[in-house]
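notes to self, project folder thing:

trying the whole complex as one job this time. last attempt i did each chain seperately and stitching them together was a nightmare. three parts in total, labels are on each line so i dont mix them up again. if this works i'll redo the older ones the same way
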Amino acid sequence: MKDLLVFNNEVFRTYAFHVVLLVFKMLLMSLMTAFQRMKKKVFVSPEDTSFMGGILKYDDADVERVRRAHLNDLENIPAFLITGLIFVLINPNETLALQLFRLYTLCRYLHTIVYVVIVIRQPARTLMFFGGLLVNITMGVMIAMKVYE
Amino acid sequence: MKDLLVFNNEVFRTYAFHVVLLVFKMLLMSLMTAFQRMKKKVFVSPEDTSFMGGILKYDDADVERVRRAHLNDLENIPAFLITGLIFVLINPNETLALQLFRLYTLCRYLHTIVYVVIVIRQPARTLMFFGGLLVNITMGVMIAMKVYE
Amino acid sequence: MKDLLVFNNEVFRTYAFHVVLLVFKMLLMSLMTAFQRMKKKVFVSPEDTSFMGGILKYDDADVERVRRAHLNDLENIPAFLITGLIFVLINPNETLALQLFRLYTLCRYLHTIVYVVIVIRQPARTLMFFGGLLVNITMGVMIAMKVYE
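result (full assembly):
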């Protein structure tokens, strides 16, 4: 039985790299939210306005847009991270695995770009969401097939 | 030292299957939210109303109910996924592990059913929440015991 | 190749213990929200007021404060849990790894304390947030370096 969670397994090494890309992306969303709040001077805790000035406001459209993009990440990326790890452990075809990881990361980055950075008309965002979903479903189905083989 | 993260370890194989069941459940919640928004024609981004028609509305009761159920998943399921993986690595009693995984998944599915699909009076939802919590706490305590043995 | 995901690897054992500390912390936030709702008698689902009395209210300041602290956990802790696992697999320097895990957990606990338990003026909360972020970035960069070594 070969060891799979090692860095000379190309599938695991690529997975590990995409974990970093996706985790950094999620953490960046927190900073983008904070940046929007400071730029627009709208905060949600009194200790923030005491420190930074500005006003308490719960529904600023620009801040909420970043927060929705962030929440969409939280709904999807942790699912990918753990499913991806189990997927590495089924020892999948290397080419397929690498393409799935790349497609997922690409879709998630583009999802945020069309949602927050340059708002592009729908269904751009929905397509990126479904691209990511497709990867998660493909990996999930392949894991289930391995369980029942 | 036997290898634990392999598919001929019954505990890991069952864990992997429940990862799929729970990840698919979480992804389904995104689709249920989108479905409710389209059915009730209420959206939160202007590019969505431009594409789909309907109105911008942030507090539709049916949409918010699905979103709360989804958020409750996000608060609990990722914790299970990672705790469950570490739990597999303590090489627990097989029967206990399988029953914990099954109980967890059952509680989370029923939690959503009584919250969103057929709203049943409380404390139905709270009991399902505590069922899931009990599994996470049991696994956590057993991991801590292994750390200090 | 030595096995890394085993309890006689001090780095993994410490990681596993911090997983428990952080998962229990996240689960505690759910209970703190429920406790605040019951104490202030404000709920968001009609079946809750039917069961517990009180009123439907969506913007109670004390409840929302706990929820924001919880959401901040959800934005950060799952990222740590999976990044930490991959970090264990790069077989890092033991002293560094243990200090990173301890710093992370300390920052996250203090983040909640200064946000919810005893509200301390800013930038206390922001500093705790950046302490946690620093750990996640350090681990991420070290993983990326391992990928490309």
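what i see at first glance: Helices of chain C lie at 10-40, 46-52, 61-89, 94-117, 124-147.
need to look closer tmrw
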